[in-house]
Amino acid sequence: MRLIFSKRCVKIYVQMRHREVRITAMQESGEMYLETIYVLSRSMDDVHAVNIASHLGYSKPSVSRAMSILKREGYVNVDGEGRITLSDRGMEIASRIYERHEVLGGYLTALGVDREVAVEDACRIEHVISCESFDRIKEEYRRIKERQAAAPQAKAAADKG
């Protein structure tokens, strides 16, 4: 899975001066980095900037710059060996974005969207969808999965009767 960053968000981030506005402007880009660290940390013991750069297709200096910003803002920790871990604050955001990614991708696939297209769309939607809309989609997706799980049982019961 390749995650895509919005260059517009990065440009706005660099131009903004006020901290709250800056966080909002870089939200998608920052969230993508945090999600990438989260995903990589699930399959690797140690995550370094070079792993993130390779995963995203970015240069190591770009990733290093982003990590210094995320570290300064308290989202990641970087030790003396260059190992990158999510802080509690970063983990909270990363796990929320990852959940959105999984639910939205699954929901779109359940609706009949091609899996590859659904994953790409989920990558874009996960950063802009409101909590209210996401909660409704998540609930509907849960119901779809319950119906899908019950369908084989209902068919088996019907076949017996």
Mind sketching the topology for me?
Layout: H1 7-15, H2 19-25, H3 27-43, H4 49-56, H5 60-72, E1 76-78, E2 84-86, H6 88-110, H7 115-125, H8 131-160
Antiparallel strand pairs: 1-2
Helix pairs in contact: 1-2, 3-4, 3-6, 4-5, 6-7, 6-8
Describe the protein in words:
The protein is mostly helical and 161 residues long. The chain folds into 2 domains: 83 residues, Orthogonal Bundle (Arc Repressor Mutant, subunit A); 69 residues, Diphtheria Toxin Repressor, domain 2, CATH 1.10.60. It contains 8 helices and 2 strands. A two-stranded antiparallel sheet has the order 1-2. β1 and β2 form a beta hairpin.
Could you give a short description of this structure?
Helix content is 73%, strand content 4%.
* Strand content range: under 5%
Low-confidence stretches: 1-26
Instruction: Tally the beta strands.
Output: 2
Count the domains: 2
CATH class of the largest domain: Mainly Alpha
Order of helices and strands: HHHHHEEHHH
Terminal-residue CA separation: 45 Å
Number of helices: 8
Gross morphology is: elongated
What number is the mean pLDDT? Answer: 83
Q: Helicity range of the residues?
A: over 70%
Radius of gyration: 19 Å
Structural class determined from secondary elements: mainly alpha
Keywords:
8 helices, mainly alpha, Diphtheria Toxin Repressor, domain 2, 161 residues, 2 strands, Arc Repressor Mutant, subunit A, 73% helix, disordered N terminus
